[in-house]
Design brief:
By secondary structure, the chain is mainly α. The protein has 29 helices and eight strands. Among the domains are: about 120 residues, Rossmann fold, CATH 3.40.50.620; about 90 residues, Alpha Horseshoe (Serine Threonine Protein Phosphatase 5, Tetratricopeptide repeat); about 160 residues, DNA Cyclobutane Dipyrimidine Photolyase, subunit A, domain 3, CATH 1.10.579. The longest helix has 28 residues. It binds a DNA duplex through helix 5, helix 12 and helix 17.
DNA sequence: GGTGAATTCAG
DNA sequence: TGAATTCAC
């Protein structure tokens, strides 16, 4: 079945190419495969309800809209057009399109976020059952997550090791391919197209400005890449630490939507690298290495997510679950508004809400302030980034926030607090960035721009700054934040030790194991919904029959856990493993009978109206932030979540799969024993 | 040119 | 904060 090789040559077969975050025609393996088979029906399904909380934010939807229009016009010039469907269930929409076009094949490219892993596996199974030949490909990564392992076949747990391995693989990432010259159109006229609505009237106004700064779409992405590589790249290593830097590539939104192939980026970078190495241009070489590293972090985010598909919800290091987060919605509001009293933080937050963009360094600054100074739960910050960033990307953002909050073995030191005042002089030495985003401080001399609270009164007066009036005093003093952090960490270690002792004594079943404790709910004001009426997901026969969703087996944790696993399990794993990469079609996601779960009927909550707003909007919405929605807002990626929340239940009649699923989660609930690795206090 | 101080920077 | 590297003498 999945080993079957498609016979090429356009023998009257029609293939659906299901586009998701691979909105390009160049170096798109799914599209290329479809073109080889015969007629093509390009399809995009807009089913944001499937994303749960992670309904795309306003700017992200704006980008998607432009990108799809661009893709459609490319298809039109090649002889077909993009079919668009509005849906609450991608799989049933796929079936509709199969039926109306008489397609025999379905091709798509892999995604690695947890929801997609489940949905895609389900799509594969259901459509295969219907006699459709389904193939999926790697279009998003240099190497598939399961290709990168240490000498023992285990996945890496630190970035540096992972990336070294990637850079020293015995084979290169697949070379990028050219776009097809011509496409034989499938019977797209037989298929009704839904008009997709990505913005409401109020959002349109705010979105208008975006088009001045950004050009979504795959061929624009390509131009941006070429321009970056032939221009600012060489200076990347010297400039990349300045908040205002013109050396940023600005490629991340293009990469998020797959308008750009990382493999193409990689190949072009490698060429430059060789060139500069030959010329002895060390700055250039260093720049390439540094930029490659950021590509590597993106790879790593998918890798981590694939191996631990709850990283957007749970810390990877076990002890973090004992950290006493400060659940203070007022702090959260002040941070979002850019009114913390620390100019660099505030400038960043205002830039983010005004433009949907933030320089990488400044993301670290504001996130670090959020987690270490305010001690707010990192998932809130991640959610806000998700809602506001143009390049919002679940895997990358989860990795970033976990890094900042000390939840990874190679995170920043837990007890380290960066002082925004010093960071200010580092990343914005002349205060230009702060002056641009904080007009109330514009006239303050550079000497005081990053610490106005120390400025002499006459200086403040001359600059028209009234602390506490038109610019706030620091919300918290850094020194006391440090003390508070120490206390919190002490408490965390104490609780962790108690829990460990309890487990070792066998007295308690893992006191407070994070898989059983509901995560802190998001505050209401970022969760308020204003979405299209949800359609009933379970109305059609297929959805009802296949209510149970599936996740592809996570190869690594399965193997790593092999001492506890039965040989039967391992065998089935090994067998499936062998069917993974195929030439010329690289069939991928492992097919070993996957674990199943079912989710209950509570409709997912999402957030559509939280995009960029003006100050009044935010202030207004946060005034209702007190009333917290009871519990059930957070989807939890574990079999035994609290009953009030959206929940996944292990299917009992499927012993093999459920046991492997549990096994995987038992393993991950040990949280890698990374706690030992990261004892750094 | 060797040594401690200062600085840089962190996946 | 701490290791690594550069700087000043």
């Amino acid at each position: 079945m999945s080993n079957e090789v498609v016979s090429g040559g356009g023998g009257g077969c029609t293939s659906i190419v299901w586009f998701r975050r691979d909105l390009r025609i160049e170096d798109n393996p799914a599209l290329a495969a479809a073109v080889r088979v015969g007629a093509v029906v390009p399809l995009f399904i807009w089913a944001p309800e499937e994303e749960g909380h992670y309904y795309p934010g306003r700017v992200s939807r704006w980008w998607l809209k432009q990108s799809l229009a661009h893709l459609d016009s490319s298809f039109k010039s090649l002889g077909t057009s993009l079919i668009t469907k509005r849906s609450t269930d991608s799989v049933s929409s796929l079936i509709d399109v199969v039926k109306s076009t008489g397609a025999t094949h379905l091709f798509f490219n892999h995604l690695y976020d947890p929801l997609s892993l489940v949905r895609d596996q389900r799509a594969k199974e259901i459509l295969t059952d219907l006699g459709i030949i389904v193939r999926s490909f790697n279009a998003d990564l240099l190497y598939e997550p399961w290709e990168i392992n240490d000498d023992h076949g285990h996945p890496f747990t630190t970035f540096t090791e992972f990336w070294n391995k990637c850079l020293n693989m015995p084979y290169d990432p697949a070379a990028p391919t050219l776009p097809p010259k011509r496409i034989i159109s499938g019977d797209v006229l037989q298929c009704s197209c839904d008009k997709l609505i990505f913005e409401n009237e109020t959002e349109k106004g705010s979105n208008a400005l975006l088009a001045r700064a950004w050009s979504p779409g795959w061929s624009n992405a390509d131009k941006a890449l070429t321009a970056f590589i032939s221009g600012p790249l060489i200076e990347y290593s010297v400039n990349c630490r300045k908040a205002d830097s013109a050396t940023t590539s600005f490629l991340s939104p293009h990469l998020h939507f797959g308008e750009l192939s990382v493999r193409k980026v990689f190949h072009l970078l490698r060429i430059k690298q060789m060139l500069w190495a030959n010329e002895g241009n060390t700055t250039g070489e260093e720049s390439v290495n540094l930029f490659l590293k950021s590509i590597g972090l993106r790879e790593y985010s998918r890798y981590i997510n694939f191996n631990h598909p709850y990283t957007h919800e749970k810390p990877l290091l076990g002890h973090l679950k004992f950290f006493p987060w400060v659940v203070d919605e007022n702090y959260f509001k002040v941070w979002r508004l850019g009114r913390t009293g620390y100019p660099l933080v505030d400038a960043g937050m205002r830039e983010l809400w005004a433009t949907g963009w933030l320089h990488d360094r400044i993301r670290v600054v504001v996130a670090s302030f959020f987690v270490k100074v305010l001690q707010l739960p990192w998932r809130w910050g991640m959610k806000y980034f998700w809602d506001t960033l143009l390049d919002a990307d679940l895997e990358s953002d989860a990795l970033g926030w976990q890094y900042i909050s000390g939840s990874l073995p190679d995170s920043r030191a837990l007890d380290r607090i960066d002082n925004p005042q010093f960071e200010g002089y580092k990343f914005d030495p002349n205060g230009e960035y702060v002056r641009r985003w904080l007009p109330e401080l514009a006239r303050l001399p550079t000497e005081w721009i990053h610490h106005p609270w120390n400025a002499p009164e006459p200086v403040l007066q001359a600059a028209g700054v009234e602390l506490g009036m038109n610019y706030p005093l620091p919300i918290l003093e850094i020194g006391s934040a440090k003390d508070r952090l120490q206390e919190s960490l002490a408490e965390m270690w104490q609780l962790e030790a108690a829990s460990r002792a309890a487990i070792e004594n066998g007295t308690e079943e893992g006191l407070g194991d994070s898989s059983d404790s509901a995560p802190i709910a998001f505050p209401q004001d970022i969760m308020d919904v204003d979405h299209e009426p949800a359609r009933n997901v379970n109305t059609n026969a297929f959805a009802r029959r296949h209510q149970d969703q599936m996740v592809p087996s996570m190869t690594s944790s399965f193997l790593r856990n092999s001492d506890e696993s039965s040989s039967e399990h391992r065998e089935s794993y090994e067998n499936s493993r062998q069917e993974v990469p195929q030439e010329p079609l690289r069939e991928t996601l492992n097919q070993r009978s996957p674990p199943t779960f079912r989710h209950n009927n509570s409709p997912p909550q999402f957030n559509i109206n939280m995009g960029l707003r003006n100050v009044e909007d935010i202030a207004e919405s946060s005034s209702i932030s007190r009333s917290t929605r009871g519990g059930g807002v957070v989807p939890i990626w574990c079999p035994s979540s609290s009953s009030s929340s959206e929940q996944f239940v292990v299917e009992e009649n499927d012993t093999e799969s459920s046991s492997s699923y549990l096994q995987r989660h038992q393993h991950t609930n040990e949280l890698i024993d990374w706690r030992r690795l990261s004892r750094a206090r």
